[in-house]
Each structure stands twice: as C-alpha cells, then as structure tokens.
Amino acid sequence: MGATHVTVTIRNPASPDRSWEGLFLVDTGATDSLVPRDSLESIGLAHKAQRIYELADGSEIRMDITTGDIEFMGEIVGGTIIFGDPGTEPILGVTALESVGIDVDPRNQTLKRLPTIRLKKLRSKKE
User: Fold this and answer.
1) Of the candidates 110, 80, 76, 116, which has an alpha carbon nearest to the alpha carbon of residue 95?
2) pTM, entire model
3) DSSP 32-59
4) What is the mean pLDDT of each run of 10 residues along the chain (127 residues)?
5) Does residue 53 belong to any structural domain of this protein?
C-alpha cells in the first residue's frame, strides 16, 4: 500500500496573507498535523503550548504546538499544528480530514469528499 499526499496551505489566522504551502503526507494514524518549525515561524506562528504524543514505536515525546488555518482541496479548517524539526515531511492528520468531510481511499491512494460531514445525533431539548 502506498502513501497519499495532498497540497496544503497553512495560514496565520491573525495575518491570512501570511501562508506556507507544501506537499503533505496524509496520515490517518496521526491526530494532529505537523509542519517544520521554520515554515511555521516564517509565517509568524509561535508555539502556544506543548503536548505529549505517542510515536509509532510506543515511545512518547513532548512537542510544541500552535493553531492555524489548514487549507486543502478547497476546504479550510482551524486546527492544531505540531512544530516538527526543520526538513521534516509535513503531515496532514485525521482531525483536519474529518473536520471537512474528507475520507482516505487507501486502495486507490486518493482522498474523497464525503457526501456529508459526520455529526453524532443531537438530543433535542425535549428529551
């Protein structure tokens, strides 16, 4: 099974004219997206906090995070972005995909738009 890639633009929500574009690996095993630190800093995004992530080998790592606008396939979503090491391949995580209703077809290595965005049943106030 091969890898799926998509072109993504990261925008600074405070200055939408400041953006960075790259080819991202689509990783349904990753919750959040990851962008090289120097690319995020070049558009004025600074780390806001740290979060502990579990790597594929089971080890844990504390990483800087921020929030930004993630734009791909004609859609835009605000999301958590991890600061990766310079030169690291950017990753598009599953949260961004699901937030705009995009699913991965691993057999064809493509992304497909769902007819609707999934939402759990809402309870009415009468229940």
Assistant:
1) 80
2) 0.86
3) SEEEEHHHHHHTT----EEEEEE-TTS-
4) 87 96 94 97 97 93 98 95 96 92 81 71 60
5) yes
